[in-house]
Design a protein that fits this description.
Elements (H helix, E strand, L loop, with lengths): L9 H12 L10 E4 L21 E5 L6 E22 L22 E20 L10 E5 L5 H17 L6 H10 L1 H5 L4 E4 L12 E2 L5 H22 L1 E3 L6 E3 L3 E3 L5 E3 H14 L18 H7 L2 H17 L4 E3 L6 E3 L5 E3 L6 E3 L15 H10 L5 H15 L8
Parallel strand pairs: 3-6, 5-7
Antiparallel strand pairs: 1-2, 2-3, 3-4, 4-5, 8-9, 10-11, 12-13, 14-15
Catalytic activity: [E2 ubiquitin-conjugating enzyme]-S-ubiquitinyl-L-cysteine + [acceptor protein]-L-lysine = [E2 ubiquitin-conjugating enzyme]-L-cysteine + [acceptor protein]-N(6)-ubiquitinyl-L-lysine
Function: Might act as an E3 ubiquitin-protein ligase, or as part of E3 complex, which accepts ubiquitin from specific E2 ubiquitin-conjugating enzymes and then transfers it to substrates.
Keywords: Metal-binding, Repeat, Transferase, Ubl conjugation pathway, Zinc, Zinc-finger
């Protein structure tokens, strides 16, 4: 039975490709095996194994009637970055079936505004191929190109160029050349001067049937692109070598701590620094060790650097020292709860409702002078609550305490 030409199978093939690209493998795509990022091997049994580069991901689906069916996820990294100008529709405006895809600046009127951002990492292109039995001697592969962040006309241009490459290499295996062109050359084919423009609306006309562009509004696509860029930047940070400005050793980013202020130091140095300050109680000095940078180290970073006991100690010390630094905060002598001091030197505990003098810590005595510490000790001695030895020890402690203290002249 003769195999139908590739064009007659495109609608069903396009639907299968779209379903598969939604989750690596779509419903009904069958089991698959995935080649990771190891160095590529030459095609085995045809072009089904043509990864083209270790930088790409290959997903091979269950063969359908001896037809080889696979997807290649092609990284779309741009070292110098590309400026993406997104033309966004203002809220509550009607959409129009138009799209800017030639990279030129256009006036979109008062109902639309633009958002421009530089991307060095763009979401991958997905090339889905079905190799007919007559490939490569007679027919080209049936293919679909998925770019969920591009406008339809952009993806259509990619499909047209793949047709051109097949026409030039007719009768030869072409998947390898397709992948190489998409990864290395297509970006200069799609945009000039390092920029491209995405229209505000989803174009549905004049789109190649093999092109699978974005199906969501730019308001939904742009955040996904930014999220992908952030993840790729973090992956690059983990793999690159960095120098610690404390110990001057160079190591991978996976062994570094990057603070919100942008400075980064190795985990070992930061652990030593943070644990030392927590042990000594100098929690207010837990700041970025960078030159002239006094940005505080956030709790989520400290939690990674400290043990559980050290983190709990830091939390207690920070609360205590923060309360101590507030002039009108005093502590209840009964339950040690922080209280706000009034102008009359009295405070009421919110926990036990005890009203006390903030100076002598005794019950509030309006109109009466506070007893001195010596007077309090003598009263306790007279009541039999302290021995002679305890009185002498307490008086000695008070003298040491007030040796370097200047009392208020009032």
């Amino acid at each position: 039975m003769a195999l139908p030409p590739p064009s007659s199978r495109l609608p069903d093939f396009r639907r299968a490709s779209l379903a598969a690209s939604r989750g690596r493998v779509g419903e009904g795509a069958g089991p698959r095996r995935r080649a990771g990022r190891s160095r590529p091997s030459r095609p085995r049994g045809g072009d089904a194994g043509a990864e083209a580069s270790g930088d790409d991901d290959l997903v091979v689906f269950e063969n359908k009637g001896r037809l080889r069916y696979f997807q290649i996820y092609i990284r779309y990294d741009v070292a110098d970055g590309v400026k993406v100008c997104a033309k966004l529709s203002a809220p509550n405006t009607s959409t129009r079936d138009v799209g800017c895809f030639d990279g030129s600046e256009q006036d979109y009127g008062p109902d639309e505004f633009s958002y421009t951002c530089n991307f060095e990492y763009l979401p991958p292109l997905i090339l889905t191929c079905l190799l007919p039995k007559s490939y490569p001697s007679k027919d080209p592969p049936s293919f679909a190109v998925t770019a969920k962040w591009m406008d339809g006309p952009y993806v259509s241009q990619l499909c047209e160029m793949l047709d051109t490459i097949w026409a030039e290499l007719s009768g030869q295996k072409v998947v390898y050349q397709w992948v190489e062109w998409l990864r290395n050359t297509s970006r200069s084919y799609l945009w000039t001067d390092g920029s491209m423009t995405l229209g505000p609306d989803i174009a549905t006309h004049n789109t190649d049937i093999r092109a699978i562009p974005r199906t969501k509004s730019l308001e939904s696509v742009i955040p996904l692109m930014l999220s992908y860029r952030s993840k790729k930047r973090y992956q690059a940070f983990l793999e690159d070598l960095h120098m610690c400005m404390i110990c001057l050793n160079q190591t991978k980013g996976s062994k570094f701590i990057k603070l919100p202020c942008g400075h980064l130091f190795c985990v070992k140095c930061m652990e030593t620094l943070c644990r030392m300050h927590v042990k000594e109680g100098s929690v207010f000095q837990l700041v970025c060790p960078g030159t002239k940078c006094k940005a505080s180290i956030p709790p989520y970073v400290l939690k990674r650097l400290l043990t559980k006991e050290q983190f709990e100690r830091w939390d207690r010390l920070l609360l205590q020292k923060t309360l101590d630094s507030i002039s009108d905060i005093v502590f209840c002598p009964r339950c040690v709860i922080g209280c706000v001091e009034d102008e009359d030197n009295n405070a009421q505990c919110p926990e036990c409702s005890f009203i006390f003098c903030s100076f002598c810590k005794g019950p509030w005595h309006p109109g009466k002078q506070c007893l001195t510490p010596e007077q309090k000790i003598q009263l306790r001695k007279a009541s039999g609550r302290m021995t002679e030895r305890e009185v002498a020890e307490e008086l000695r402690n008070i003298r040491e305490l007030y040796k370097d203290v200047r009392l208020c002249p009032k």
